[in-house]
Amino acid sequence: MAEYKLGKLLIEGKTKKVYELVDDPNLCLLQSKDRITAGDGVKSHELEGKAAISTATTVKVFQLLDQAGIKTAFVKIASETAFISKKCEMIPIEWVTRRLATGSFLRRNPGVPEGFRFNPPCQETFFKDDANHDPQWSTAQIISAGFVLNGVVLGKDEVDIINRTTLAVFEVLERAWASRDCALIDMKIEFGVDTSGEILVADIIDSDSWRLWPSGDKRLMKDKQVYRNLSAVTQADLDTVKRNFKWVADQLDYLVPPPSALVVILMGSPSDEEHCKKIAKHVTDLGLRVQLRVSSAHKATEETLHILAEYEGSGEKVVLIAVAGRSNGLGPVLSGNTPLPVINCPPTRPDNVALDIWSSLNVPSGLGCTTVLYPESAALAAAQIHALHDHLVWSRLRVKQLTNFIALKNADITLRNLTL
Ligand SMILES: Nc1ncnc2c1ncn2[C@@H]1O[C@H](COP(=O)(O)OP(=O)(O)OP(=O)(O)O)[C@@H](O)[C@H]1O
Ligand SMILES: [Mg+2]
C-alpha cells in the first residue's frame, strides 16, 4: 500500500474503514477489517483472514460487472485487504433484489411459501438505519426524503435508473453464478454519487451481500446466512464460515472465462471489406473475437467449403456472418452445408436492395440462414446466439439494454427542461 498516501479517516463502519487519498480528492481507500457482524452489529466476531477474502471477493465481482459494462465506483485493488474506489457520497438505502422468496421476505409477506419464484425478480428498498433495524421504504419515501448527494437530487428519474441498474447487476451475477451451478437467491447493493455527480454501484459486494445456494440447495448455502443462523458461535463454526467465504472467492476466478466466442465474417469479395469492418467493430465492442475471411461461393465453391471445414473442425463455438453483394450465394451455400448458425448481412444500397435482397431471403428448403440489413444487427444477432453459452456475452447484451434505457431517460430529462 506504500504507493498510496492515506489522508484522513472519512468513516469507520462495522466491517471497514474508508480513508481519503492525499494525492487524489476524487478517490478513497476501503480498508476491510477481520470482523464479521450480523443483526445490525449485535452479533460480532473477529475472523482472522476475513478482510483478505472479502476484498478478493469484492474486487472480482466489481471486475466482472466492469467487463459487463456496469458503472461502478471500483477503481483497483490496493493490497490484500484494501481497494481504491471513487470517493462517493453514499445513498443511505439498501437496494435488494430477490429471485426466490426466503428470509425476511417471508416474515413480511405471510402466506408466501419459501422458494416462491419472482419473474421478474422482486425489488425492495430499505433505509439504512441500524437503530431502527433498517426499515423497508417505498419509492415514494425515498423520493420524498429529498436526498442531495454531491449536488445530485435523488428524484424519480434517478431512482428509476438505480432500480434498473440494480436489476441488471442481479441478473448479470445470477447468470455468472449459474455457470458454476450456483443459484443466486437474493442480494443487496448500495449506490453512491461520485465527485463528478455520477451515480455508481458502490460500497462492496461480498459474501455478506447475497444468498448463494450451490445446486439451488438451501442446505448447501455458502453465504453469511450460515453465520446469522448460529446461536452459540464456536471457533469451529467460524472456521466453517471462513471456509465457505474462501470457496466463494475461489469460485469467482472461474466467472470471467477467457473469451471463447468466435464470429467469422465471410465476404464474397474484398470490395465488401468496409461493410465487414463495420460489423467487426460492433462484434469486438460486444467482447467477441472476430475473423474476416474472403471467399466466393460462386467462383470458388470448393475453397468456401474448405474454410467451413476449418471452423467446423476447430472445436470452437463459431457463428458465421455471410456478406455478399448482388446475388448472395455465400450465405445459403454455407447454411446448406453446416449446422453452424449463418447470418446474412448483404451490403445493400437503397438502389439495389429490392433486387438483391431476395437471394438472401428466398432460400431453398432445408436452409436456416437468417438475414439482417445493418452491420450492428448482424453483430447483435451473432452475440445473442453466443450469449446462450457465454454468460459474459449475455451480460454485455443485458447491460446494453440498460445503457439504452439510461441514455433515453437522460435525453428525455434534457429535452423536457429545454426552454423553447
Ligand atoms: N466509495 C465510497 N465512498 C465513500 N464512502 C463509502 C464508499 N463505499 C462505502 N462507503 C461507506 O463506508 C462506510 C463503512 O462501511 P461499513 O460497511 O463498514 O459500514 P457499516 O458499519 O456496515 O455501516 P452500514 O450499515 O452503513 O454499511 C459505510 O457507511 C459505507 O456507506
Ligand atoms: Mg456496510
From TrEMBL:
Record key words, sorted: ATP-binding, Decarboxylase, Ligase, Lyase, Multifunctional enzyme, Nucleotide-binding, Purine biosynthesis
The keyword Electron transport is assigned to this record: no
Domain of life: Eukaryota
Biological process annotations from GO: 'de novo' IMP biosynthetic process
Name of one Pfam family that matches: AIRC
GO CC terms: cytosol
GO MF entries: ATP binding; carboxy-lyase activity; phosphoribosylaminoimidazolesuccinocarboxamide synthase activity
Domain PurE residues, every copy: 261-408
Pathway assigned in UniProt: Purine metabolism; IMP biosynthesis via de novo pathway; 5-amino-1-(5-phospho-D-ribosyl)imidazole-4-carboxamide from 5-amino-1-(5-phospho-D-ribosyl)imidazole-4-carboxylate: step 1/2; Purine metabolism; IMP biosynthesis via de novo pathway; 5-amino-1-(5-phospho-D-ribosyl)imidazole-4-carboxylate from 5-amino-1-(5-phospho-D-ribosyl)imidazole (carboxylase route): step 1/1
UniProt name for this protein: Multifunctional protein ADE2 isoform X1
Species of provenance: Cephus cinctus
Underlying gene: LOC107270852
